Amino acid sequence: MNWLIDTDILIEGERENPAFGAWSASPGKFATADIVRAEFLLGVHWVNDAALRVRGEKFYRDRILSVASFANESADYEIAARLAGEARRSGKGRPSLADGLLAAIAIRTGATVATRNVGDFKAMGCPCANPLERSRK
Amino acid sequence: MIEVSVTDAVNGFHRFLGKVERGETVRIRKHGRAFARIVPDSDFMSGGDFSKVFAGYKADDLDQAAASAIAANVKKLDEEFEHELAHRHGHSH
Fold first, then answer.
1. Residue A16 to residue B63, Cβ atoms within 8 A
2. In chain A, what percentage of residues exceed pLDDT 70?
């Protein structure tokens, strides 16, 4: 399985969640997306405490930047808007535009989004799973 | 970003591909107008390479706190996006 990793899963990596460690050693292929990197980094720059901000930046530089990452293509934006808009219209979920952009890459590359927010990705018809729940079973 | 004419791009194609492979973007101009780019692409990494990225990482209390602060900010970002949408368009539209 090809995993496309969402921001909330990378944060579990920073926490050193044991389920993240078990999953990262599992068979499969892994990548994230530039939009996910940006979301993580926005969260870092928003942190008021300078010491915590430095730790977040270090994790980003030392770990996240070493994970393969997909950029969005022009066509992804239209797909993201449709997926997120239709999910909202149907009342099935409330995915953000960033979720839609990640879903567009997953669909284009045949990947499964690794996320804790499976509800919003399912609402977009995007293959997804919470790998940290899976590895506990 | 590197900018080249079509002629230079064709003549130096392999050299420019090498630059793209190292992370640079090559913008191609025709009659002075940019019309194409050669950009780095990505692919999935193996499980072995992925687990190596996190090998040896130990999160202390500061890392745990940083992760929680970042998670809270990302959640706040989503909530603000929701609030903004609701404010602009109304929940029922």
1. yes
2. 97
